[in-house]
Amino acid sequence: MNQSYGYISANILSLIMIAVTIIIVYKRNQTKGAKNLILILSLILIGNFCTFMEGNVLSFEAKHLWRNLSQIGLFLLPSSIYAFTIVYTNEKKAFFKKLVFVNFIFAIVSVLLIFTNDFHHIMRTSVELIEGSNGFSLKVHQTLIGKVFVTLNTLISLISLIKIWIFMKTRSKNMKNQVRLVFIGFLIPIAYTYGKSAIVKITGFIIPGSTSFLIGIVLILIGMYKYDFMTISPIARDWVIDEIKMGMLFFDPDGNIVDTNKSAQQIFGMENKEITEKIKNKYPIWQQKLIDREDTTIEVGIETKLRGYRNYGITIHPLKNKEKSLGTVNLMQDITNEVNERARLIDKSEKDSMTQIYNKIAFKRKVNEILTTNNDEYIKYSLLIIDIDNFKAVNDTYGHKVGDDVIIEVVKLANLLSREEDLVGRLGGDEFAIFLLNCDETLNEIIANRIQKSVAEHKFMIDDNEFYISLSIGGITDHSATIRFDDLYVKADKALYTAKKLGGKRFAQYKNR
Fold first, then answer.
1. How many helices (H) and strands (E) does the chain have?
2. Which of 132, 152, 136, 146 is nearest to 64 (CA)?
3. Could you check whether 5-238 and 351-509 share the same CATH topology?
4. Per-residue pLDDT tens for 178-212?
5. Which CATH superfamily includes the segment(s) 351-509?
C-alpha cells in the first residue's frame, strides 16, 4: 500500500499523542479507573502502531507478522474497555464483574488461535497478498469460527457502550456531561472501525485508525480536566455521594444549598431552594452553625416525606480552598433508633420501676433545673409532699402485694388530678411529691384537697373485701430566686409532720415568716 505523506504524518502524530496521553494518565495512576485507562491506551497504541507498520513494509511475511501483532491490541481492547466500564460505572453485580475475566480469557484465546492459525486453521482459511490501486495489502479469509470470534469481540464493545449510556442517564447534570464525553470518546473509534469503508466511499479520504482513536482520547482528556474525570470529586459525587445511605447537603458561605445527594432529597422530599428556606425558618440553630462554618455536630428532628418523624445527627464540616471559604458539607445520619434507645435508658434510670413516675434523684434534679432556669422572683413554686396514712397497717393486713397496688393506684390519681406541667415523683416508700410551677398557696391547697378527696373516696378491693385509705399532705409555696429543692423539701416536710401530728387526713401549709 502506497501511503501518502499526509497519511503517514497523521499516523505518526496520532501515535505520539497517544503515547503522551499514556504518560499523562500514568502520573495520576492512583486514582480510580486510571490503571484501566492506561491499559486501554496502551492497547490502542500497540494495535495502531502495528497496523501502521503493516502498511509500510513490503514482504508478505513482514505484513503477516505485523497483522498478527496488531491483533494483540485490537482483540484485547474491547475486553479492556469493558473492564474500565465496570470500574467507571461502579458496577455491583457479581455477574458483570466475572465477565471481566471471561472477556480477557476469550481475547487471549483469540490472539493465541490467530498466532497458531497455520497449524489448525480455526480462525482463518488463508491470508494472501493482493495488489490494489494503492499498492499491496493483505486479504484475510476468515473461517466461520473466526467471524463468530470477531462478532463476539464487537458485542463486548457494544455492551460497554450500552452500560456507559445507561450510567449517564442516571447521573447528575455535572456528571452527565463528563460521562457523555467518555461515551462519545469510545464511540468514535468503534464506529469508525466498522464504518471505515463507507466513510472512504463518501469522503474519498482515508483517515488513519490511530487518528480516530486520538479524537476519542481527546474527548476523554477534556472530561479529565474540565470535569475532573480522574479525580475524586465527580467520581465520589456519583459513586459515593449518591450511593451513600446518608444525607449530604452542600452549602455556600451564606448558608444556601448548592447541591444535595439522593438520600437528602428523599429525607426532605423537596427542591434545594425549599430545603434552604425550611432550615432558615425551622432550624435557626442549624442555620447559625452554617454561617459560623465550624466543625460541629447537632441533632434535629425532621418530619420526613417517606418515614415520618425522624431524628438526625448532622455533622457540619467547613470547606476551604487556600483559606477561602467555600461553604460547608453537612452529613445527615438517621439516629432515631439511638435517640429512642437513649431516651429509653434515661427514662429507665429516672423512673421508679413500680409507679413509673420520677424517682427521688431524678425528681430532685429536674426540680432544681426548673428553679435554676426560671429564677424570676415573680414566679411562685409549690411543693406538695404526700404520705399515705397508716400504710404499715395496709401491708400488715393485706400483704405487701396489695400495698404495692395501693401505691400504684394513689399515683394514678395524683397524676390524673395534678396539672399537665406539674412534676410527680416518688420520694420513697409511700411518700410522694408534686412540684407545681406558677402556683400560689391558694391553688396548691385546691390541688392538694382535690387529690385528698379523690383518694379518700376511692374504693380499694382485695378479693371481695373493700377498704379505704387517706392521705396527709404538707405544702410550701415560695418565690425566692435562690430557692432550691432541699429548701422546699425541708419546709414541706415540716408541714407534713404538722398534718400527721393533727391526726392525718388533712393538708397543712408551711407559713413563711
1. 18, 14
2. 136
3. no
4. 778 778 877 877 776 666 655 555 555 566 666 66
5. Reverse transcriptase/Diguanylate cyclase domain (3.30.70.270)
Average pLDDT, the chain: 83
CB neighbour list of residue 441: distance below 8 Å, 6 or more residues apart: 382, 475, 477, 509
CATH of domain 5-238: 1.20.1070.10
- Cell numbers linked to 18: 497517544
Query: What does the alpha-carbon distance between residue 342 and residue 225 come to, in Å, rounded to a whole number?
Result: 48
Classify residue 126 by burial, with Cβ atoms within 10 Å: 0-12, 13-18, 19+.
exposed
Confirm if 314 and 354 have CB atoms less than 8 A apart. no
Q: What is the 3-state secondary structure (H, E, C) of 421-457?
A: CCEEEEEECCEEEEEEECCCHHHHHHHHHHHHHHHHH
Could you give the CA distance from residue 268 to residue 262 in angstroms, rounded to a whole number? 10
- 258 DSSP assignment: E
Sheet strand arrangement including 471-478? 423-428, 431-437, 381-388, 471-478, 507-509
Torsion of CA 457, 462, 466, 472, to 10 degrees: -40
CA distance 278 to 276: 5
Amino acid symbol at 148: V
Cα–Cα dist 240/490, whole Å:
62
- C-alpha span between 168 and 352 (Å, rounded): 60
pTM for the predicted model, two decimal places: 0.48
Main-chain dihedrals φ then ψ at residue 433, nearest 5 degrees: -145, 150
* Residue 251 bridge partners (DSSP): 257, 328
Domain ranges of the chain: 5-238, 245-339, 351-509
Residue 466 CB partners (closer than 8 Å, separation 6+): 459, 460
Q: Report whether 385 contacts 433 (CB < 8 A).
A: yes
Q: Does domain 245-339 have CATH number 3.40.30.10?
A: no
Q: What angle do CA 236, 221, 215 make, to 5 degrees?
A: 140
Q: Are strands 324-334 and 308-321 parallel, antiparallel or unpaired?
A: antiparallel
Question: pLDDT tens for residues 474-499?
Answer: 999 988 878 899 999 999 999 999 99
